[in-house]
Amino acid sequence: MLNTHVPTRRVVGLLLVTAMSLIALDGGGFGPISGIREAGQSATAPVRDAVDWGTNPFADAWQGVTSYDEVQAENEELRRTIAELEGQVGEVGDLQAELSELRNVTGLSFASELPILAARVVDDRRGVLERVITLDQGEDDGVVVGMPVVTGAGLIGRVTDTTGANSTVRLISDARIAVGVVSHSSGASGVAKGNGEGEALLVDIFASELGQLEGGERFVTSGVDGGLYPPGIPVGELSLDGIPHLVSYGDLDTLGFVSVIMTKAAE
Amino acid sequence: MIGWPKLALLAVVVVLLQVSFFDQTMLADLARVDLPAFLVVGLANKLEPDPAAIAGFGVGIFLDLFYSSPFGLFALLFCFAGWAIASITPLVDVADAFTRYGARAVEFALLWMLTWFIGGVFGMGRTSLDWTTFTELLLLMAVGGFLSDPDRGLARPVAVA
Question: What is the DSSP string of B115-131?
Fold first, then answer.
């Protein structure tokens, strides 16, 4: 027990300076900070697992109650999509030939020879400032910080932290993510930036190319941002409704399995 | 006298509940409950400014372990919020329970907006505040006013002699 009057303003000032120093150290890439984080998370993991185990049924039940309409709508949408896809099966051969030709011309590499590592999303946390997902593949599996993470639909984020067995992914909706993008239909290029969870990606197009744009254009990674993202990964569809923005192809709401593109492993 | 061990245990439980459960659960499909912030507001309504700042720092630094935001960000925010709210609380120390509820809701809103502002400085969070955000804030204020009640809310187990 401590006396409430023992601490002084100096203590408060010291705490504020400590917090700011920690932020500065973390921003400067001070190694022990991530060690402290990892140790703290490891130490509390059993308790968190127990809380997860105890609360998951409630969370699932709550999700079912509050998202029933969404689930129903999603089911109908999926049925429609399946019907459309069945109708398009015959066109696949032509599309493949076209795709192959496009690859030769533009160097697209989304489905290239780069090694892919499938991973399961084991944790999906949304705080007031950010949303972070955790994968069941980590350093031991060859995952390295910086590797892009995709679903079949396109880019969804980038690995920002790894432990032996897990890795943390920052999603492209995060305002700290910026991706060089290009449209192969108009040739316009720019930078797509996260705009917060549930929001479309903002896209800065080079001014001289703005006039050439049309709504619905497909933007893919340009591969010009220091090799962070290989070229050709689908990012989103352009909307010119208001400020130009990209509606992400990757469905960030329901992430179950994803693929890590082992870019650095391939180098 | 403050029961610091009990306060530390409470902070651990609240943060673990937040990162394990409430970060994955939406309230009425609109808002995500922010228990650590409610706890800090509750403690600030119960403690003197200096211990409230220390308690806020403790809750924040433990929360920092679990997020990818700059380490120390929540410690800084909650330390300042604890001290500031505890400093202004005596100004609204009225008998009317509804006024006190409203004051706590506003204090929570100020903390929430400060979090967004500081997050924005570090390039995090949404870059624009829309109606969804305001709806979320109003809902959280309504819940926060109750949960940050120093005598009946999250801070209740902390004894101050």
Answer: HHHHHHHTT-S-SS--H
